[in-house]
Amino acid sequence: MLNSIFSGIFDSSAAAVISPGTFLLCVAVSLALGLLLAAAYMYRSRGTKSFVSTVAMLPAVVCVVIMMVNGNIGAGVAVAGVFGLVRFRSVPGTAKEIGIIFLAMGAGLIAGMGYLGYAALFTVIMCAVLLVYNRLDFGTKKAAARCKTLRVTIPEDLDYTEVFEDVFPQYTSDCELTQVKTTNMGSLFRLTYDITLRSAAAEKALIDQLRCRNGNLEITVSRQETISNEL
Fold first, then answer.
1. Which of 14, 115, 172, 223 has the fewest CB atoms within 10 Å, counting from its CB?
2. Longest CA pairwise span in the chain (Å)
3. pLDDT tens-digit series, residues 22-41
């Protein structure tokens, strides 16, 4: 009776039939691996509840897809790839989110092929590598604390190409004007610079010098913006 409930209408003697016990075992292992990946992702990272839940469930979903295509790996990978694209259709994902999505899909694919031991080994190794990289802040620039984005508002009568050329060399080792924008009906310029301070303590002194030049108009200093983490 149980076998007839879980049998497919297209099953034949030429096609391998997955038993309910095997199906449940693969799904359970995939869910456990998903939880492990989600926990590794959350270590020193900020993620939304929905994304973390998706990572935890994704290996099981991919595992079921691979099992249901009944050994047709090409079709399975093509279908499973759709799940990886759904996340990035509307909301830009970071490089780390892309990586964890593919790790989850890889673990689910291995489990769906029936290699549960290899799936567990792959997940443990990759989680360990991810934790080590996060712990060591791998890829973080040592000078990141000195890399800033500076926005300065100046009156329209000042020449923005030369107004600060003698100030920046005193407090920065690198400076690049990245954007010029008019504001307040064209009466003001808003300049955006990517700068690298000579020392973190030079930030206030730089702001004081700029205030003297721009008539005490708005000045903003923030962590340097980058698109390297976006898709």
1. 14
2. 87
3. 889 999 999 999 999 999 88
Token readout for 57 is 């469930």
d(CA 181, CA 78): 45
Average pLDDT, the chain: 80
Say if CB 112 and CB 63 are below 8 A apart: yes
Which string of b and e fits 77-89 if b means at least 16 CB within 10 Å?
A: eeebeebeeebee
Query: What token pair was written down for 65?
Result: 């897809």
Task: In whole angstroms, give the CA distance from residue 122 to residue 120.
Answer: 5
In Å, how far are 30, 92, 146, 149, 175 from 228, measured between CA atoms?
Answer: 31, 12, 18, 15, 19
Q: Helix count (H) and strand count (E) of the chain?
A: 8, 4
The structure tokens 């930030």 sit at 203
